[in-house]
Specification:
2 strands, two-stranded antiparallel sheet, alpha+beta
Length: 136
């Protein structure tokens, strides 16, 4: 495991959330129009009926640009999720449960060394040494 990669777990998570928010904004910016029109049955007796019609008002180029942006955002989310999954799996491969808990609390949950020490009844320096031991 590389310490720099582990430290990036929280940033990966925030980047995923930012991409998801951007996707939601793309969906909200879509302009649709709905209307009610008069029509008739396609077969005899040709009775008059009302139908609801709706559609996207934006141009073809605008829709293609949004689709491209959406695809880029989805690819980014997929790559970041894969990286996070790989890093979390690396942490879960650690055999020592105490050390695994320390790594999860530090890098996934973002706790400080002091908070981890209080939670696990350890000194701050002990927590630091255990992390350094596995990352070296």
């Amino acid at each position: 495991m590389i310490k720099k990669e582990l430290e990036n777990i929280r940033y990966l998570d925030s980047e995923i959330k930012a991409c998801q928010m951007a996707l939601e904004r793309l969906e909200l910016n879509t302009v649709t129009v709905a209307d009610k029109v008069k029509a008739s049955n396609p077969v005899f007796p040709y009775q008059q009926i009302s139908m609801n019609v709706s559609g996207n008002v934006s141009s073809y180029e605008t829709r293609m640009e949004k689709a491209k942006q959406k695809r880029i955002l989805m690819d980014t989310i997929d790559k970041r999720n894969a990286t996070m999954t790989r890093l979390i799996n690396d942490i879960n491969q650690v055999e020592d449960p105490e050390l695994r808990t320390i790594l999860i609390q530090r890098y996934v949950n973002g706790l400080t060394y002091e908070e981890i020490g209080q939670m696990m009844n350890l000194e701050r320096s002990s927590v630091c040494k255990k992390i350094k031991k596995i990352l070296d």
